[in-house]
Amino acid sequence: MEQFSLFSKEAPQPLAARLRPQNLDEFVGQTHLLGPGKVLRRLIESDQVSSMIFWGPPGVGKTTLARIIANRTKSAFIDFSAVTSGIREIRTVMQQAEENRRYGDRTILFVDEIHRFNKAQQDAFLPFVEKGSIILIGATTENPSFEINGALLSRCKVFVLQALKTEELVGLLLRAVARPAGHGPAGWTTLCAAQTVHGPLHDGGGDRPGPGPSAQDGGAAARINDKKTKNS
Fold first, then answer.
1. 111 forms bridges with which residues in the sheet?
2. What torsion do the CA atoms of 196, 201, 206, 209 make, to the nearest 10 degrees?
3. Ordered structural domains, the chain, with CATH
4. With CB atoms 3.0 to 4.6 Å apart as the test, which of 68, 87, 156, 213 could cross-link to 178 if both were Cys?
5. Distance from C-alpha of 148 to C-alpha of 66, rounded to nearest angstrom
């Protein structure tokens, strides 16, 4: 007989986690790095990824991009936070990565907010990066030239991620309200009703078509109209 438990069901995931892109085609933004023929896309598609630093503002997809790289390259992925981890945790993770290397498996170590690590903590990564035990992907909102040790930085490529444009954010919004993983058909109906009452979504950038959802998002079209607010 099965026992009933209040914890038998998985807790619902946040919207951002449910809609997290799984591949480069779903990723929004950073076309200067991930557009057709661009440098980072070529490295990922040719499976020639090396240690790198993603520098950019919050919310531009640094963690998501690291996960896509791990999935694409069939590497073990370890998510590591500089806020909650210290030297002991670093050594434990490095031992795990070294064990993976002995069995021929690659490990991508993603370090969020890597600039929060002090010099000694950053130095702990160096020998494992040098011998290829890990592919280090660090994310930072601070200038790595000032916040990352020179020795470690010299072994990493630095990619600058840009803030998302208004039309890209609108596209993400439309995806969220249209897809079943987001708010589904009910969410799309609500958005359409809101636009009927309050007018179409707009970004103040001219009367032009907006990035509406694709066929799998429901096939609905959206327009971004120029609307200037006047003080009464």
1. 80, 138
2. -90
3. 16-160 (3.40.50.300), 166-224 (no CATH)
4. 213
5. 19
Give the pTM.
0.70
Q: What residue has token string 């130095």?
A: 123
DSSP string, 193-207: HHHHHH-----SS-S
135-140 and 223-224 beta bridge pairing: unpaired
Amino acid at 129: V
Is residue 158 within 8 Å of 56, Cβ to Cβ? no
Read off the pLDDT of residues 3-62 as tens digits, 9 standing for 90 and up: 444 444 556 677 677 778 888 888 989 999 999 999 999 999 888 889 999 999 998 999
Both tokens assigned to 190: 């609500």
- CA pair distance 180, 221, nearest whole angstrom: 17
> Edge-to-edge strand order for the sheet containing 76-81?
76-81, 107-112, 135-140, 52-55, 157-160
Task: State the number of CA atoms in the 13 A half-sphere of 210 facing the CB.
Answer: 26
CA distance 144 to 53: 8
What does DSSP assign to residue 61? S
Per the listing, tokens 């971004």 go with 224
Strands of the chain, DSSP E: 52-55, 76-81, 107-112, 135-140, 157-160, 208-209, 223-224
